[in-house]
Structures are given as C-alpha cells and as structure tokens.
Design a protein that fits this description.
Strands 3-2-1-4 form a four-stranded parallel sheet, sandwiched between helices. By secondary structure, the chain is an alpha/beta fold. Helix 1 links the parallel strand 1 and strand 2.
Length: 196
C-alpha cells in the first residue's frame, strides 16, 4: 500500500527494437504491451497508484520506431492515449533544446534524459485525470531485462526509507546479466563509477 495517491511515470526509449503490441515477433520483446499490462496490474492491485508512460524515439531513421509505437498504441491502447496516460515523443524534435547536434549524439542516454524531463513537465496536466500527491519517475530499458512489475518493490523502499533516488545495476552480486557485449560491460562500469 503506497498510502496516498501516487503517480508513477516511466520512460521507455525506443530505436529499432519496438515490437507491435499483440503481434508475435520472435526477435524482439514486446516492451510496450508488457509494460502497459504490468502497469494495469499494479494499479489494479492498488487503486491509489496511477501510471503514465512516455515513449521516446531516440533517433531512429525517419522517426520509424516512434511512429510504429504511435500506431500500435493508438490501435490497442487508444483509451490511454486519449487520456494523456501514454505519450510518444521524438528526440529529433528537440535537438537544439537538449544541446544535441544530431540524433546520433543522443541515442538512449539523450532519450532517457529528455523523457524524464517531459515526465516531470507534464505530470501536473495529468492531475485532471488523477489527483496525485506523490510522483515517482523512472525509465525501463527497451531490452526489458528489468520489468515494470518490479516497481512495487521500489515503491516500498521509497515509502519505508524515505529515499529520493534509486538505481538498478546489472553489476550487483545477485544480478544475472546475460550475453552482454564488452562495450556494454565497460559502459556499465563507467556509469556505476560516476553515479556512486
């Protein structure tokens, strides 16, 4: 139980890894459908929890990933799109504001940063639908090794310990990272060194 009305906003950066909701694609995770289903379950268990999803196309050619996401979301989750619960944004549209010369300068990091800023900016507008008292903002990797279903664990920690920020890491002793490239492992080491 979160105690008071709580808004959870998650950012999912997309590039070329977006699968169509409710269509089988053995080569890609159906990130959007799985996240939405898990958010529905979370708010079903605790009606004091509302959610928003900000999908950010992080520079795919001709905005293809974002457009695929928009069409799929409009087709299968139109009620959420109309309520402003799900939004698709494009890093390409805000390059100058984000201090980027091109989408290649951004990719996932720029998309996550932009998505988090948008989540915070737009949260007040969502009060018309759900009058929240607390807000939590985060992001899910498009590879979906972490899931929205794990949010309940984090919410308990935030509430019980009154903490303000949490990071997950695949370098924790109990984590099970599979098939990571050398580049991914090095980026993870540098990232963890910076945030600690």
């Amino acid at each position: 139980d979160v105690g008071e009305p709580t808004l959870i906003t998650m950012v999912i950066p997309v590039f070329s890894n977006v699968a169509h909701p409710q269509e089988k694609d053995p080569g890609a995770e159906d990130v959007l459908r799985r996240a939405i289903t898990q958010f529905e379950q979370l708010s079903g268990i605790n009606p004091k929890v509302a959610w928003q999803l900000v999908v950010v196309d992080d520079g795919s050619r001709d905005k293809t990933a974002g457009r695929i996401a928009e069409r799929a979301l409009d087709r299968y989750y139109r009620q959420y799109v109309l309520r402003g619960q799900i939004k698709v944004k494009y890093i390409e549209d805000v390059l100058k504001e984000e201090g980027l010369a091109s989408p290649e300068d951004s990719r996932k990091g720029g998309a996550v940063t932009y998505g988090l800023k948008e989540a915070l900016r737009e949260a007040d507008g969502y009060r018309q639908v759900f009058d929240w008292k607390k807000q939590y903002v985060g992001y899910l990797d498009p590879d979906y090794k972490e899931t929205a279903s794990q949010l309940g664990l984090l919410l308990g920690e935030f509430k019980d310990k009154n903490i303000g920020i949490a990071f997950g890491s695949r370098r924790m002793p109990d984590s099970q990272a599979v098939a990571r490239t050398l580049r991914a492992r090095l980026c993870s080491i540098v990232y963890n060194a910076v945030v600690r």
